[in-house]
Structure formats: structure tokens, C-alpha cells
Amino acid sequence: MPGLSEEHPSEFVFCDTNGRAWGCEKTTLKTPVSYVPIDSGENKLITDLVKGAIKGIADGAAQSVRNATINAIPHSELTSIIFFEFDSSALSTQSKLSLLDVLPKVSGKKILIHGYTDSVGSENYNNKLGLNRAKSVKNFFIKAKSNTAEIKTFGNGLCCYLEPNRTEEQRAKNRRVEIFVVN
Question: Is residue 28 part of a domain?
């Protein structure tokens, strides 16, 4: 697919976080990421887009789907990362203090909260744990009267690690919630 320029080509990475048909690339805090939830009714559009990208075809239909999809992606900015203890969705005292510092940044804004886990446990369990972590942050914002315009929560189990999960220190960095402000 054509990029923005030869110096800055575009790159699309598709990641199946629920079906586990293929894994996610490792992202870091500097990785620009846009999360786009796809409903099952939209699979045909995504399939056509992927096929077109793989074949290098930019016919009118694939191009219009690509443009519509790109235009529909809201820009979001990573505002904060909150870490959790093993197998827990409870906020620590330090996490609550960090969230209090985030309140002015999220006030009046739409925010997305993504909860993650390490690789220990089943996918189903970790999806629920990731979602519960995101909900803990959402509930904190609600109780703190954050005045956010909208809060959406997502649980991501066995995906999107910051570290490889080989040691306890690495796994601890993966047990997190990322808070995004949508611009």
C-alpha cells in the first residue's frame, strides 16, 4: 500500500486479540498504536482490506474501504500506565495516587482503558482479568468524579506484551492497564 512518503511508508499490522489466529507484535511505549474494535459483521470489509494489502491491489473497492477504515480510526494518546500485582485487579495505593495525577488529563475527554495480563493462566481467564483491571480503573475515575465524557474498557489476555514473560520482573511489566485519551 502506498505510504505517506517514501521516507515514511505506511504500515498496517493486523492483530487477532480474541480469536488467536495470529499473535500480536510486541509493542513498546514508543509504538504508535490505534485500537479498532471490529464487530463480526465487519469481517468482510477487513478481509477485503487484508487481501488487497497482501496482493498490492488498490482497486476502487479496496481503496474506498481502506480510506473509510483509516478515516474512522480515532487518534488516541497514551496518557498513563498502571501496574498490577499477580492475579489481581485491585489498585494499589501507588496506583491510586498515579490515577489522581491523571484526572486533569482525562476530565471532559473520551478515554479508552485497556487491561492486560502476563502469560500465566488460560486465555479465557486472562481476558476476564484484563477486563477487570480496566474496570477497576474506570470505577476509580467514576468514584473520583473524573467528569470524563465517555469511558470504554477492554480486556486483553494473552497478547500485546511489553516484555517477553521469561522472568517475574518481565511478567510484572505486562500486568498493566493503559489509559488512552481520544482526540
Answer: no
